[in-house]
Amino acid sequence: MSSYQFNTLQVEQTGDNVYHVQLNRPDKRNSIDDDMWKEIPQCFDSLGTDSSCRVIILSGAGKMFCSGIDLSVLAMLQDPNQEVARRAIAMRIGVKKFQDAFTSIEKCPKPVIASIHGGCIGAGSIDMTSACDIRLCSQDAFFSIKEVDMGLAADVGTLQRFPKIVGNDSLVRELVYTARNFSATEAKDIGFVSSVHADAKTLTDASIKLATNIASKSPVAITGSKINMNYSRDHSVDEGLNYIANWNMSMLQSEDLMTSVQAAMTKTPPKYKDL
Amino acid sequence: MSSYQFNTLQVEQTGDNVYHVQLNRPDKRNSIDDDMWKEIPQCFDSLGTDSSCRVIILSGAGKMFCSGIDLSVLAMLQDPNQEVARRAIAMRIGVKKFQDAFTSIEKCPKPVIASIHGGCIGAGSIDMTSACDIRLCSQDAFFSIKEVDMGLAADVGTLQRFPKIVGNDSLVRELVYTARNFSATEAKDIGFVSSVHADAKTLTDASIKLATNIASKSPVAITGSKINMNYSRDHSVDEGLNYIANWNMSMLQSEDLMTSVQAAMTKTPPKYKDL
Amino acid sequence: MSSYQFNTLQVEQTGDNVYHVQLNRPDKRNSIDDDMWKEIPQCFDSLGTDSSCRVIILSGAGKMFCSGIDLSVLAMLQDPNQEVARRAIAMRIGVKKFQDAFTSIEKCPKPVIASIHGGCIGAGSIDMTSACDIRLCSQDAFFSIKEVDMGLAADVGTLQRFPKIVGNDSLVRELVYTARNFSATEAKDIGFVSSVHADAKTLTDASIKLATNIASKSPVAITGSKINMNYSRDHSVDEGLNYIANWNMSMLQSEDLMTSVQAAMTKTPPKYKDL
Amino acid sequence: MSSYQFNTLQVEQTGDNVYHVQLNRPDKRNSIDDDMWKEIPQCFDSLGTDSSCRVIILSGAGKMFCSGIDLSVLAMLQDPNQEVARRAIAMRIGVKKFQDAFTSIEKCPKPVIASIHGGCIGAGSIDMTSACDIRLCSQDAFFSIKEVDMGLAADVGTLQRFPKIVGNDSLVRELVYTARNFSATEAKDIGFVSSVHADAKTLTDASIKLATNIASKSPVAITGSKINMNYSRDHSVDEGLNYIANWNMSMLQSEDLMTSVQAAMTKTPPKYKDL
Amino acid sequence: MSSYQFNTLQVEQTGDNVYHVQLNRPDKRNSIDDDMWKEIPQCFDSLGTDSSCRVIILSGAGKMFCSGIDLSVLAMLQDPNQEVARRAIAMRIGVKKFQDAFTSIEKCPKPVIASIHGGCIGAGSIDMTSACDIRLCSQDAFFSIKEVDMGLAADVGTLQRFPKIVGNDSLVRELVYTARNFSATEAKDIGFVSSVHADAKTLTDASIKLATNIASKSPVAITGSKINMNYSRDHSVDEGLNYIANWNMSMLQSEDLMTSVQAAMTKTPPKYKDL
Amino acid sequence: MSSYQFNTLQVEQTGDNVYHVQLNRPDKRNSIDDDMWKEIPQCFDSLGTDSSCRVIILSGAGKMFCSGIDLSVLAMLQDPNQEVARRAIAMRIGVKKFQDAFTSIEKCPKPVIASIHGGCIGAGSIDMTSACDIRLCSQDAFFSIKEVDMGLAADVGTLQRFPKIVGNDSLVRELVYTARNFSATEAKDIGFVSSVHADAKTLTDASIKLATNIASKSPVAITGSKINMNYSRDHSVDEGLNYIANWNMSMLQSEDLMTSVQAAMTKTPPKYKDL
C-alpha cells in the first residue's frame, strides 16, 4: 500500500479488490491544483496494473465532490514573455497533459465508479466524471459546466465525452452555453447518473455494494467488457464486432469460463484469479 | 411458404406483407443451439429478398423470449488438442459466424420488430434484440446481460450496439458489469424499448398493428430509411448526408412518389408495388 | 440591418446581440418553397459573420412552426426529358443544395435555438430543427417525420442527425417508419427538446431569456464550444481532445480569460468584445 | 481434391501447400461469365479454410490472363420491365455480388500471387489482380482499365484498390480516363507488379518458386501478416498498431515461435503444422 | 463564353468539350493575388456545371507556371489591432477560403490536367497542382515547396495531398523540410507527374491530345470515375465499394452503356450526350 | 548534455541544433535489448522538448545499423506459469510498450533522419526506420523484414507504416512474406530511401548536411510541417485541411513570418528563436 501515498489523493482498500480514491483537499473544496493533475494519472496508472485492484470508487473528501480547476493552474499557462506561436505550443503541451490525466481514468482497465455528493463543478466535474464508467450521486449533488464563465471552451473532456454518454443533446448544449447549475434529478433524467441516493451516507453504501458486486466477477470478463465498450463508443458496429472477435481469440481460452460453469453447476460463488 | 421450414424457428405470414418469426424451442426456453445459429441468418436473408415480405416481427414461443446461448454451443468452441494460436483462429471463425447471424437481422432491408415477453437473457437477449429496429415488450419482461457471469465479455453485439441505441451510458455499464436483471420499466426509461404493454396478448396485438401500419407504406421509402439509418449510426453527419444524396439519385425517380401524391390528393390509401 | 431583407424570412434584433429569425410564410403554413431554400443559408451565413450577432432564435410566424417542403419544389426535381443517369446527377445537385441549406444552421458559429409551436412537420420539422443547437417547444407543438408518406427516405438531415441527438433509437425508427404525429411530451421524453412551455407566449419569453443569457457570455468561449461539440459528435473522444487542444492554442491567449477573472473578482458582469 | 471441380476454374496442387487456380475459359479468352462470378468466391472461400493450402497462384489458361467481363453478364443486369427504383435495387444487389467475388480473394487468409501473361483487360484485369497480394507478369503482358469505354465507372475494385497499391496517382487517373493499354514495363515502373519475366514459362517458374518459398514459412506468421496488412491499409497507424497488439495476444503464444528458434539454432528447415 | 471573363485567368475552348484555363498574370510570374484566389473557384465551379465542358487544362501564361502566393495577400492576413483569439478566428476564415479555392479544382466533376512549364513554386505549385487529376510537365519545369522558407507550414493542400499521390514519403518530407528545388525528372521518378515533354510546345500538344481523348469518352463514366476515385482516396476499400454500388444504381441505367456497345459493334466512334 | 547519458545509445550534438543518436551496442550488432527498448523513448521524448535540438540523425555504431530485436527480450514475453488469458494480457502490455518506443520517434516534433549502413534487419530495421521522417542509406546497406522467419507477424510498426510510405504494395508483401534481403537499390526503387550514397562516410556527410540545412529553417514551420504530415497520413484530405487551418490560427501569428520576410528582403540568412 505504500505506493499509494499522495499529497492530494487518499487511497484505501475497502473490501476485497475494491479501492477507494478520494480527492483530498477538502479545505480547498477539492479544487485541482498542479499536484493533483500529476497524481491522478499516477494513481490510476498504478491501480490499473495492480492485480489486487478490480474496481475503483472515486469520491471527494469533505463537503463536496470537486470545485474545479484551481486558479493557480490557469495562471501557470500564461507566459507573457513568449511570442504567440511559442506560447501556443507550450499551452498545447499543458492542455494535453491535463487531458491525459483524466484519460488515465478511462484507460484504466478496471471500472471506475464516480460517487458524487455536493458540488461537482467545472473541470473537476463533468470532465472528470465523464471519464468514469458509472456515476452515482446523492440528492444534494449539483453540477455545473463552468468553463464558459471563465472565458474558454472546456478542453479536458466535457465537450468530447458528455454528449456521448447522455441522451439529450439539446439540454447538453443548453448546459454548456449557460454554465447554469443542474440538479441530481436533472442529471438522472438525461442519463448522466445511474441512480440518485438519499444522502452522502447511503450513496457511499450503494457505491461500495455495487463495487463489491463487480469485484466478485471474473476480471477477465470485466476488463474485456470495459476495453471493448470504450473501443465501440468510438467505432462503427462492424469495427467493434471485429475488435472483440480478435480480443476473444485468447480470452475464450481462459480458465474463467470453466470456473464460471462449475460455479453455476455447484451453485457456489466462483473464485477467480487476479489478473 | 415451403422455403420457411426450420427446426428452431416458426415463420408465418400474419396479414399482408407482414411475417412473424418465432424462436421455437419453448421447452428449452428458446436457448440458441447450433441449429438456431444457422437458421437465423438463413431466415432473415431469405425474408430480406422475399418481395412479399415488408416487415418482420420477432418473438419467442412459450413462456419467455429467449434464455440465451445453449451451453452445448460453448462446449463446441473448445478443442483441447490444438495449440493456442490454431485454437484462437478456430474460435475467431466461430465467433464471427455467431456475430454474422445477428448482423443478418440488421442487414435485412426490412424493419424487424422485436416483441419481447418474459425473460430476455444473455446472448439471446440484448445481443439479438439490439440488432432489431424496434423493441416492444410486455410488463412481465425482464432482461439480463449475462455474459460476465459466464466469465467472458459479450462478443455477439451487446457491447457494440446496446450503448448506441440508448441514452444512459452509466446504467449501460452498470448492467454489463453486474449482469443483474432489469425490468420492462427500466428498459423503457433508458430508451431500450419504445413502449411497454400490459401482457403478452396486448403486446402481440400492438406488434401486429405497428407492423401492418409500416407494411402499408412505400417499400422504397422504408428500405431506404433503414439502410440510411444503419449507415448514419456509424458515420459522421456529413458522410450520412452524402450517402443518402447518392441513394436518392435513383430512388427519387421512383413511381412511389407519384403514387403517394395521387393517394394524398384523392384521399385514398396508396398501393405500392413490392420491391 | 438592411442586409437582412428576405422574401420568406423575417429577421429582427431582439435585445443585445440576439437575432430572431422567423419563417415568414404564415398563409402557407411556412412551407419551404424555392425562395426559402435559398434564403435560409444566405441568412445564417450572414448572421454567422455578423459581429453584432451572438445567438439566434428560429421560429415560425403564424399558427405553426413549419409544414414541410412545398410541393412545388418536389415537382421541380423531376425532368422527364432526361435519361436516368443525367436526371440522377441533376437530382443529386438539388438534394445537396437542400442539405447545405440546413447545414448552414449547423455550421453557423453562433448557437441557434429552435422555438417550436404548433405543427413541425416533414422537411421543415425534424430535418431543420435537428440542425439547431437547442430545441424548446410549447405544449401544443406536435411533430411528424412525414417523408415516408411521400414515398421517399428523408434526405435533408432527419435520418442523419435525429438519432444522434436523442436517446431512444427504437422510438426514432418507429417514428420514421410510421410517419405518425408525436407530442411535445413525447419529444421531451426522448430528449429531442430541452423543455416544454405552456403556450407560444411563454415559449417566446423563455427563448429570449435563454438567448440573452448566452449572448452575455464570452463569444470566444461560446463559438469554441459549438465548433468543438459539432466536431466531437462526428469523431472519437481522442480525436475530439486533439482538436480542442489545437483550437485552444490560440483561444487560451484571449483577453476574455482575464476579463472573466476580473469580473469574477469584482463581482461585476463581464463585458466581452464582439468577435 | 474432389471439392475443387469447377466449370470455369481449374485448380491443382503444385508442390507442398501450394495451389494453382487457373481461369479456364481459354476459347473465350477467360472472359468472366455468370458461372465464373459464382465459382471464384466458392474457390477462394474453400481454399481459405483448407488446411493443406498455404499459398495460391492465380493465372489464366491459354493465350492471355483475362479479357474482362463477359457481355452476357452485363445484359442480365438490365430489366426494362422494372421502374427505376426497383431496377436500381436489383442492380445494387448484382454489383455487390460481383464485388464480393473479388473481395473473396482479398479476404482469403492465404497469400494470392497473380501470375499474368498476355492481355489483362477490364473487369478481369485490374479489378481482380488488385485484390491479390502480389502481381508478377511476363514481358508480353499488357493491361487496360476498359470500363470507361463501356460507358461506366469501374465498380468492382479498380477505382478502390488500384490507386492504393501503386505510387503515381497522376498516371492512375490517366489510365482510368483513357482506357489505354499499358505495358509490363509501365506496370513495373508505377509499382503495380513486383517483377517482369521474360516469357510465360519463366513467369510460371518464378511464381511457383515464390509460392513454394512462402509456403515453407509459419502459416501463423503468414496469415497474421496478410490480415494485418489488409487492416492497416484501411486504418491509421495507431489503429493498425492496436489491432496487431490484440492479434498477437494469442499468436505470440503459438508453438511456431519455438519451432522457429529451434530451426535457427539447429540450422535445419523448420516444419510448421497446418492451420 | 461571356461568363468566363476574369481578371487573372484566361479561359478558352480548345476543341470539342475541352477548356483551357490559364493563370494570366505573366508579368507577375502568375503569382496568386487576392483576385486570383476569388476567381479560381468561380472558374472551376462554373466549368463544373457547364455541360459543354468535359475536360479542363490548367497552365500558366508566360515564362512559368506559377511563382506562388503574392506577398500582398499574406500582409492582408495580419491585423495588429486585434487581440490573439479574434485575429486567430479571422485567419482561420482566410485560410479556409484559400483552401476552398484549390479544393474547387478537386471537387470539379470534370478531369483537370495540370500542364506545367518553368517554375512551379510555393502555394501556386504543389498545393494547386496536387488538387488536379493529372500532371504533365516540360523538361524545363522545376518545383519547390517554398512555405518553410516563409516561416510557416504549408496550409493550402501540399501537406495534405502531395504525400497521398506519390510513392516516396522519405523524399516528400525532404522536399518539404528543405524547400529545395526539384526537377522534372525527380518529379517523374517519385510519381508526381505522368510524363515529361521536351518543351512547352510539345507539352501543350500532349495536353490537348490527352484532353481531347478523354473528352470523347462517356461523360457519365468519366465523372463517375473522378468522383469515386476522390472518395476512395479518403476511405477504406469496403467503404469505396459500397459507395460506387450506390452510385451505379442509377448510372448503370444510363443510355451511355448501350451507346458504347453499339459503337463497339459498329466500330464507329460513340457519340455521347452532354451531362 | 548530462541528461543524454544512456547505456545503449550515444547522443552527441553535431553542429548547431543538430543531434546525432547512435545505436551503440556494436559488439551485439546493435540488437535491441530490454535497455534499448526503454532508452529509445526516453531519448526521443527528451530531445522532443529540448529547445536546443531541431533535427535528429539516427544511425548505428560499428559495422551495421541494427540486427533486430535481441532474443533475450522475446524470451521475457513468455511466462509458462500463467493461464492463456492472463498471459495474453501481459503480452499485450509488452507489445504496446515496444510499439510506443518506436512511436516516440514519430511523435517527436523534430524531424528524424535515419542514416543506414550495413544490415538493417528485423525489428530494428523496417519497424524503427519507418517511424523516421527521412531515410538515407549507403550502397552497402541491405534490409530484411525478418519476423516471419521467427514465426510471428511483425507487430512493432512494419506492417502498419512501411506500406504507407512506399509505392509498390506488391513488392512490400513479397518482402514481408519471404523475409528475403533487399538491397539499397531496391529500397530506392520502391521509394523507401530518398537517396543512396557511396559509402558510410559520404552517407554521414550527406546526413549532416541535410540535417544542418533543415535546422537552419524556422522551427515553427518545421514542427508544424511534421505534425501536420503525420496527421494527414492517417486522415482524409478534408480532415487534414481542417486540422492545419486550426493549427495555423496561432502559428501564422508567429514572428517567424516577419523574420523570414526580412531575411528575404535583406538577402541575409534568417535567425529564428528556439521553440
UniProtKB/TrEMBL annotation, chains A, B, C, D, E, F:
Transmembrane segments: none annotated. Keywords: Acetylation, Fatty acid metabolism, Isomerase, Lipid metabolism, Peroxisome. Pathway: Lipid metabolism; fatty acid beta-oxidation. GO terms for cellular component: mitochondrion; peroxisome. Its main location: other. Gene3D superfamilies: 2-enoyl-CoA Hydratase, Chain A, domain 1 (3.90.226.10), Lyase 2-enoyl-coa Hydratase, Chain A, domain 2 (1.10.12.10). It comes from the Eukaryota. It is found in: Peroxisome. GO terms for biological process: fatty acid beta-oxidation. InterPro entries: ClpP/crotonase-like_dom_sf (IPR029045), Ech1-like (IPR045002), Enoyl-CoA_hydra/iso (IPR001753), Enoyl-CoA_hydra_C (IPR014748). One of its GO terms (molecular function) is delta(3,5)-delta(2,4)-dienoyl-CoA isomerase activity. Belongs to the enoyl-CoA hydratase/isomerase family. Isomerization of 3-trans,5-cis-dienoyl-CoA to 2-trans,4-trans-dienoyl-CoA. This is Delta(3,5)-Delta(2,4)-dienoyl-CoA isomerase, mitochondrial. It comes from Trichoplax adhaerens (Trichoplax reptans).
